[in-house]
Amino acid sequence: MNIILLHSADFINPDTVILKGRRKDHIINVIKAEKGDALSCGLVNANMGKGIISNIDSSKVELKVKLNQNPPPALPLALILALPRPKMLKRILESSATLGVKTIYLINSWRVEKSFWQSPILNDENLNKILIAGLEQGKDTILPQIFKKRLFTPFVKQELSDISKNSLCITAHPKTTTPCPTNINQQTTLVIGPEGGFIDLEIETLEQIGFKTVNLGRRILRTETAVPVIISRLFPV
Amino acid sequence: MNIILLHSADFINPDTVILKGRRKDHIINVIKAEKGDALSCGLVNANMGKGIISNIDSSKVELKVKLNQNPPPALPLALILALPRPKMLKRILESSATLGVKTIYLINSWRVEKSFWQSPILNDENLNKILIAGLEQGKDTILPQIFKKRLFTPFVKQELSDISKNSLCITAHPKTTTPCPTNINQQTTLVIGPEGGFIDLEIETLEQIGFKTVNLGRRILRTETAVPVIISRLFPV
Question: CATH number of A77-234: 3.60.110.10, 3.40.50.360, 3.30.200.210, 3.40.1280.10?
Answer without folding.
Answer: 3.40.1280.10
